[in-house]
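Lesson 9: reading folded outputs for more than one chain in a single document. The general rule is that every protein is listed as its sequence immediately followed by its structure tokens, and records are never interleaved. Here is the first one.
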Amino acid sequence: MPVNDTVPRHVVVRDEPLPRLPGGTIAEPAFRAEHPDLPSTHEKMR
């Protein structure tokens, strides 16, 4: 059985690339700051 944190909760389609840190990883806090209302405005995927 898969662990819940391996399945995306929400999917956002963007025209621009995701915010990145200097090391190349996704800047999750910056992404979350761009979408503070995500859980209340989008349907859950799981």
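And here is the second record, again sequence then tokens.
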Amino acid sequence: MMSRRPGRIITDVRIDLPRPRTREMLLSDEFRDYERHLKKLVWAEFQGDVQ
């Protein structure tokens, strides 16, 4: 994930899900966990909490 400005790498999130990704996978607990984690990182960056 990159910061807002200046653009710098904040963290590298490896998504360990098989490819090709299916519609069913979008409803899986594992996918939802990644989604929640990434949203928290984005929100923290938006709020200025990520260093």
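What the second record shows: The chain has one helix and no strands.
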